[in-house]
Structure formats: structure tokens, C-alpha cells
Fold this sequence. Notes:
- The radius of gyration is 25 Å and the shape is globular.
- The longest helix is centred in the middle third of the chain and has 27 residues, at 104-130.
- The relative contact order is 0.23.
- Helix content is 24%, strand content 27%.
- It has a 4-stranded mixed β-sheet with strand order 1-10-11-4.
- The protein is α+β, with helices and mostly antiparallel strands.
- The chain has a single domain (14-52, 78-298), classed as Alpha-Beta Complex (phage-related protein like fold), CATH 3.90.1690.
- β7, α6 and β8 form a beta-alpha-beta unit.
- The chain is built from 6 helices and 12 strands.
Amino acid sequence: MGATRGNYSDQFLTDALPLLEGLIYEEYEKLPDHVPDVFNVLPSSSWGEQSSTTAGPAAATEKVEGEPSAESNPLQGYDKTYTHLTYSVLSNFSYELVQDDRLGFVQKSFRQQGMSLFQTEQVTAWNVFNNGFADVGPDGGSLFNTAHTMIDGGSYANRPSTDIALSIAGIREMEVDLARQINHRNLNILVMPYCVIVPPEQMQTGEELIGSPDRPDTANRAINTFYKKNYKLKVIPFLTSTTAWFATTMPDYHELRFYRRQAPETDTWIDRPTRDVVNSTWSRISVGYSDYIGSWGTSG
């Protein structure tokens, strides 16, 4: 049963529907979306997308005069399937409620449709990080792991062996870990941090660490070496841990993916038997990662 009328006054019906639908998009678009700053946001026109990592040639070796070059062919890696899911919300308003409302209650409800869809998309995206210490990924380990299985053999870590709090020491360790990160052929890929991702509880610490020209941990005159690196601090309220924090390279250098199969759409119609107004808002997305390279995380 949908919402029923209360103490509302005169309002027309059909002519108001386009305006009400516009409120959904207005609310959805005005909320701050940090997903494009961190994920590779990609279009799709199919049921889903598939990716496969590869290990390219190994490091070049010295060629002996008169001898053929050493052969080093690409190696097949790990497969990942992204299956697009539909997320939707539907609300039902009685004919009398809409007619008597003057857009008050109904207007707020339509705005909340946009907020509802935005919230679901954000939670879905940031759960890649929330579940990044537990969920199994393409290489058989979690996204943030101390023993990723490399395609060419061996293992590698994009998580400290001992978790570390967001601090000067923590930022330094993150910088070194990313700077030394290798690909699946044991080649240093020369990546650098771009985004530092924190929950609201770590916002103040994050701003002091990377947003101040002076060292936040001493009264002495000492420069903050993180300040000039222009790291992007992303405070994400959809992170569930109050201590975990993360870093990523620029999107071009990592494999965190957000596929948008269907942009948000809305449809409003009148149910003829009841004259009730029904609205549905939906989108289709898939989120995940194809490789851990270019990402780093600690539970703090």
C-alpha cells in the first residue's frame, strides 16, 4: 500500500509529473560523486564485460653476439567477469495525496528517489574497498593482500605486513610500497599515489597530513614533504571502517572499474484502476577490479 493523503491542499495531477521527475535527477546530480576520481568509469552496451590480465615480456636481457635473442612471450593471466545488475526504487502515491498536496510531501518523496539511487550506487562502488580485505578477487586473494599470486610466479603485497594508522609513518610506508610496486613480470611500473581515501573519522588527520605546508607532528620549523605532492584527499562516508585507509594511483594506472550499463532513468505513470501515481527510478551498473596493481590499503 502506498502513501495516503494527510492534511494537504489543492494540487493538480498530470501536469505536475514532469516537474516531479525532474526533481529526481536534480537530487541525484547535486550529490558529490567521488567514484570518477578513483574508479575507471566505463560505458557498456552488453549484459556485462569481461577482462583478462596478461603478463607482457620479461625484462630485456643482454644478447650474445651471433646468438638469437632470448624469447619472452606474453602470459595469460586472470579472468574477471563484470555482470551488470539493475538497481531500482519504486514509490506509490494515492490519487488523493497527489491532488491535495501542492507538491510538498510528494516533492520531497521524489527528491528522495534520486538520493536513494545515488546512495545504492555509492555503497555498491565503495564496497570494493569495504570488502577489500576479505572478498576473493581474480588472483584468488583479496584486493588488499600481503601475498598476491603473480602470473609469472611468486607473490607480492599491496598491504603492509603490519597494518598502520593514517600518520606520517603510514603515508611514508604507502609511498614506498607503491613506488616499488611491480607488474606480473617483476618489472617496476613506476606508479605514484594519486588519491588518499579515508573515512570521515580520519578526515581531520588526512587534511593535516597532506593539506598543510608545515609538519603537523612537531612545533619545530619543518616542511611537510607530502604537501607539494598534491595528493587528492577523498573523504568517503560510505566506508564502513573508521580506521582503514587506502591509496590509488591515477585511474589510468590501476584496474578498479565502474561500468555504467544504464544511466539513471525514471518513469512516472497513473495506475488506472486506482488513479494512484507510481514512480520507478533505476540504473544498471557493475563494479569491481581486474587486478590489484595501482592500489594499496591497510585496516589501520
